[in-house]
Amino acid sequence: LLLASRAPRRHHQGMAKHSEFRLIDRLARATRVPRRDVVHGIGDDAAVLRVPARHELVVSMDTLISGVHFPENTAPVDIGWKTLAVNLSDMAAMGATPAWATLALTMPRGDARWIDAFARGFARLARQHNVALVGGDTTRGALSITVQAHGFVPQGRAVLRSGARVGHRVYVSGTLGDGAAGLALVQKRLRTRNAAAVKFLRARLDRPVPRVGLGVALRGIAGACIDVSDGLAQDLGHVLRASGVGAAIELSRLPVSRALRAVGVDDATLQRWQLGGGDDYELCFTAAPKHAATIAAIATRLRVPITDVGRIERGDALELRDNTGRPVARSRAGHDHFA
Ligand code: ADP
Ligand code: MG
Fold this sequence. Notes:
The protein is built from 10 helices and 13 strands. The chain is of the alpha+beta class. Strand 4 (97-107), helix 3 (112-128) and strand 5 (132-140) form a beta-alpha-beta unit.
């Protein structure tokens, strides 16, 4: 491309410069969240940000690609929400308080209506968590959205994947399998006349609620923590590897939403969605048994269901057990883009 074109390039794979500026301006105005630690936000060559004393900066990035991470026909307002939600979910998993976000936006054309709707979804969640959009990049190409989230933890207090110990209980927040059920509805692999269930399950897919408050509350309580984005089996597997331990999970304890129960899928499908489905954005964490009462109190205070689903054990295996303690074979692993 460089050799073929002798005309000076207007902008690095960008949109026409004026429309790009207009779009950025719309985005900046629609998502404005005032924060005193933003010394210089959108508008200069880079943002200037102030990290609080005796804290560490926690940074995560997630890309959403149309047709891969969300169905092509997803509403732009939901894309805006979800793109920030998945990143705040990573903040939650670290026990970090989110503060800032940057956004790399690539889209086929400079569509102001799309930007406005996207910004509305993004801003709604950003305001809930006082997250300021402080910069980014805007280019033309197939629709792809990358958000980087930035948050803080007091020094040395981040909750890692490597902190699970033999004897810890394994907990999950919320319910599992809803994201996979939502996707099955979109793809018409699942059909039901239960309109309330459809609404709930679609919302779980399109507008996941990151467990930010829970993540912060678990600092000093959880040994290890991860967010469930690729299915419990795979994500808990990361914790087990990082910690050098195994776990036994009791299948009948995995929390199921009323909506998912109501659509009436068979046990094998339910198990596959709960263990191997993606997009639940719940937290899975481990904690010593002595913290059980504290964890119950956190669940009540935050109004987030927290379920004890099993135990960390010696070894390196993830064992699934039925309610009599007998091992059960697993039907399928979690989502892997390169598998
Ligand atoms: P430069 O060419 O110097 O990189 P840009 O024109 O890309 O500048 O960006 C101008 C300003 O707008 C910068 O502050 C940048 O961070 C911000 N910006 C660009 N795109 C986005 C976006 N998608 N979201 C948020 N801020 C953006
Ligand atoms: Mg730039």
